[in-house]
UniProtKB/TrEMBL annotation:
Keyword Aminoacyl-tRNA synthetase: no
Cofactor (UniProt): FAD
InterPro entries on file: FAD-bd_FR_type, Fe3_Rdtase_TM_dom, FNR_nucleotide-bd, MRET, Riboflavin_synthase-like_b-brl
A Pfam family per the record: Ferric_reduct
Descriptive protein name: Ferric reductase
GO cellular component, one term: membrane
Compartment list: Membrane
MF (Gene Ontology): 2 iron, 2 sulfur cluster binding; flavin adenine dinucleotide binding; metal ion binding; oxidoreductase activity
Domain FAD-binding FR-type as annotated: residue spans: 224-324
C-alpha cells in the first residue's frame, strides 16, 4: 500500500464507465429500431398496410434475430464492451436478454402459426405441421431447439446441478443456433428480395462473429505463443484451496491490475477443455501471476494437484474491480469465501492517503484456517490497514445495518465486494437501500475467485 494518492481520476473512471454503459444501451435500442425497419418494406406497396397478427409475427421475428446477435456480441469478450460495462453486469444483461429473446421467439412462432391457420382455414395442429415443413424452416426449428437447450441448462436451479464443463459445452452450441437462425431470417419475407437489407444484416452478423473469433480464439492463441505460460509453483492454502503461480515471458505487456482476473486453461488431460475465471490473488509481477483456487467442482478439484511445468493458456485481463473505480479516500473491502483472492491483491496495493483508512472484512468459516489469512495479517500490520474476520455463526452477518455498526461513515466510502453471487446481490441491494450511491459500490461475482 502506498500513501498520498489522489482519487479524482478514479471518480472520473467510474463516471466514464457509467456513461459508456448508458451509451451502449442507447446503441442497442437504436439498433433494435433499425432491425424492425425491414418489416415496413415487406408490407407491400406504400399505404397497403399490414394486419396485426402478421405485424406481430414479423416484428417479433426481426427483434429475436437482432437480440440473438446482440447476445453473442455481449459475450464476445471484446475489451471495448467488457471495460465499459464490467463482466458481471454483462452477464446480467445477457441473462435478461436471453429471456427476452426466448419470449420473442415464442411470440413469433405463435403469431406465425396463427396467421397460417387463418390463411389456410385449418386447425392449429395442422398449421404447425405445414409451417414446420416449409422450405427454409428446418434451420429455424434447429435454432429453436438448440436455444431451448441452452436456456434450460442456464436456469439457476439447473445450473447448480450440472458440471461446469457440461454447461460450458452446451452453451457453445448457442453459436450454431444463432447461425441457423441467421439462415432462416435471410430467406424470410422481410429480407428476401431486399438486397440492401440482406447485405446489412449479413454484415452485422459477420462483424459480431468476427469479434468472437478474434477475442475468443485468435487473441488467446497469440498470447499463448507470446507469453509461454507455465505453472511455476503450487502452494496449499488450507483444505481444498491452493495458490498457483504461473510464470511467463513479458507479462507486463498485458497490463494486468490487482483485482482483475483471467480465464485460465490448464493443458492437462483432465482440464484442457475448460477455461476457468480466476482472479489474481497477488499483485501481478513482470514475469509471473498468482491465482488462488478453491475446489468447488470437478475442474477445480483437478487443479488442486496440477504439476509445475504444466502449460497454461490465459485470456485477459478482465474485470473492473480495480483501484481505477475508486472515488473516495476511505475504502471497505468485503470478501466472502474464496472471493478473498482479488481482495487480497487490492489490500496490498490500495493507496492510503494521510488520515485515510482501508478496512478489509473477510467472511470465512474459521479465521484460524482462512485461505491467505497469514498473508493478510502481515499486510495489515505493515501498511497500517485494518482486517476483521467475520466468522459464522454470529459474526458472519453481512447487511447494511451490520456494516454501519462496524463502519459508521460507510456512506462516505467506496465499497468493493467479491463473494458468492447470492451474498453479493443481497448485500449490494441492501447497501443501495441504505443510501450508498451506486458509483461507490464496486462488485464482481464469486465465480471470478474460483469455480
Amino acid at each position: 500500500m502506498a500513501g498520498g494518492a489522489q482519487h479524482g481520476s478514479g471518480a472520473m473512471s467510474a463516471d466514464r464507465g457509467a456513461g459508456d454503459a448508458a451509451l451502449l444501451k442507447v446503441l442497442v435500442v437504436l439498433g433494435a429500431l433499425l432491425a424492425v425497419w425491414p418489416v415496413r418494406a415487406s408490407a407491400g406497396a406504400p399505404g397497403a398496410g399490414i394486419d396485426g397478427d402478421v405485424a406481430v409475427a414479423h416484428v417479433s421475428g426481426m427483434l429475436a434475430g437482432y437480440g440473438a446477435v446482440v447476445l453473442v456480441a455481449l459475450m464476445s469478450r471484446w475489451p471495448v464492451i467488457e471495460q465499459a460495462v464490467g463482466v458481471d453486469e454483462l452477464a446480467r444483461w445477457h441473462a435478461r436478454g436471453g429471456r427476452l429473446v426466448m419470449a420473442l421467439i415464442a411470440v413469433h412462432a405463435c403469431a406465425a402459426v396463427a396467421v397460417w391457420t387463418r390463411v389456410r382455414g385449418i386447425d392449429a395442429r395442422s398449421a404447425v405441421v405445414e409451417v414446420v415443413r416449409m422450405p427454409g424452416l428446418a434451420a429455424a426449428v434447429l435454432a429453436v431447439g438448440l436455444l431451448v437447450a441452452v436456456a434450460v441448462t442456464s436456469a439457476r436451479r439447473a445450473r447448480r446441478r450440472i458440471r461446469y464443463e457440461t454447461w460450458h459445452g452446451i452453451h457453445l452450441v448457442s453459436y450454431l443456433a444463432v447461425a441457423a437462425a441467421f439462415v432462416h431470417q435471410l430467406a424470410g419475407p422481410d429480407m428476401a428480395g431486399h438486397r440492401v437489407v440482406q447485405v446489412g444484416w449479413s454484415l452485422l452478423y459477420t462483424a459480431v462473429f468476427a469479434l468472437v473469433v478474434q477475442y475468443r480464439v485468435l487473441v488467446p492463441v497469440r498470447a499463448a505463443m507470446r507469453h509461454r505460460l507455465r505453472v511455476a509453483a503450487v502452494v496449499a492454502e488450507g483444505a481444498g484451496t491452493v495458490s498457483i503461480t504461473v510464470a511467463g515471458d513479458g507479462l507486463d505487456e498485458l497490463r494486468a491490475q490487482p483485482g482483475q482476473y483471467f480465464r485460465w486453461r490448464f493443458l492437462t488431460p483432465d482440464t484442457w477443455r475448460s477455461a476457468h475465471p480466476f482472479s489474481l490473488s497477488a499483485p501481478p509481477l513482470q514475469d509471473s501471476f498468482r491465482l488462488t483456487v478453491s475446489a468447488r467442482g470437478d475442474g477445480t478439484h483437478a487443479l488442486q494437484s496440477v504439476r509445475p511445468g504444466t502449460r497454461v493458456v490465459a485470456e485477459g485481463p478482465y474485470g473492473i474491480l480495480t483501484e481505477r473505480r475508486r472515488t473516495r479516500r476511505d475504502v471497505v473491502l468485503i470478501a466472502g469465501g474464496i472471493g478473498i483472492a482479488p481482495m487480497r491483491a487490492l489490500f496490498e496495493t490500495l493507496s492510503i492517503p494521510p488520515g485515510g483508512d482501508v478496512l478489509l472484512l473477510y467472511r470465512t468459516a474459521d479465521a484460524g484456517r482462512a485461505p491467505l489469512g497469514d498473508e493478510l495479517d502481515g499486510l495489515a500490520r505493515r501498511a497500517g490497514a485494518r482486517l476483521h474476520y467475520l466468522t459464522r455463526p454470529g459474526g458472519g452477518e453481512l447487511t447494511a445495518a451490520s456494516l454501519l455498526g462496524r463502519v459508521p461513515d460507510l456512506v462516505n466510502r467506496d465499497v468493493f465486494v467479491c463473494g458468492p453471487p447470492e451474498m453479493t446481490r443481497a448485500l449490494l441491494a441492501d447497501l443501495t437501500r441504505a443510501g450508498l450511491p451506486r458509483a461507490q459500490l464496486h462488485a464482481e461475482g464469486y465465480q471470478h475467485g474460483g469455480r
